[in-house]
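We modelled the chain as a single entity of 145 amino acids. Its sequence is:
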Amino acid sequence: MSMTLGEIMTRDVVTVDLDDTLERVRDIFDMHHFHHVLVTSAGRLAGVLSDRDLLKNISPFIGNIRMERTQDLNTLNRRVHQVMRRRPIVGTSQMSVRDAATLVLESEVSCLPVVNPRHVPIGIVTWRDLLRYCRFCDETGCEAA
């Protein structure tokens, strides 16, 4: 029997709202040391924001005392909905790990939010999680299909 996303997903997902600031997202990334937050609207998945998306949308001079200007700090006031990836590719808890890995590769995304039938986020799986699972299967001989 093949392993499902429900068995390997991270269940403690951190979400932000559409109107949260990029400063809040930066603080979340700094505190938790992960690379994706799920964006919700009325509890339903609306998008994904990665640390790379964040870095592309804030000034590189933030935190540099000699170069930081007011306009640099203002980039932290931008809202999540302005920079998030909309209509994210998603998985379900019943999806096989193999199907999820194929979806991640074909879609060229770095994570799959796992949603329930109401499109409420219940977990997340990253490409690192999928690689870890494949390594585990190589070492133990488990079924990856």
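As a brief sanity check on the tokenised model: The domain at 5-140 is CATH 3.10.580.10 (CBS-domain). The first strand starts at residue 15 and ends at 17.
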